[in-house]
Amino acid sequence: MADDLFAKARSAMRKAHAPYSKFPVGAALRTTDGRIYAGCNVESVSFPEGWCAETTAIGHLVMDGGGRIAELAVIAEKLPFCTPCGGCRQRIAEFADPQTKIHLCDPQSGEKRTTTMGELLPFAFETEDLG
Description:
By secondary structure, this protein is α+β, with helices and mostly antiparallel strands. It has helices at residues 3-13, 53-63, 86-95, 117-120; strands at 25-31, 36-40, 42-43, 50-51, 69-76, 101-105, 112-116.
């Protein structure tokens, strides 16, 4: 993972609106054509309603015309190597391949652990399964 993706995810985490959980998260994704989209979690007073950082980044991707995710970084202020939640795993799978790299980042050390989408969600729903 290039440093720019980590920097975008960390910057997004700092913008999180997490007054209820006090658990800021940032995510940044790179598309197969090199575009980068970042997002943070945004909570609502009707907690746990709100949306995750990965969902925000995917929303930016969709609003810019879509594409495929080549890699994604996730960073949480209070949990080194935070993985995407179950709902986000399925959302990411919609725009990624099983081989897509998912980087789990430690906000203090900058250390990364890399897994794949297929390892995180081995039995993802496929759009052709719903036809």
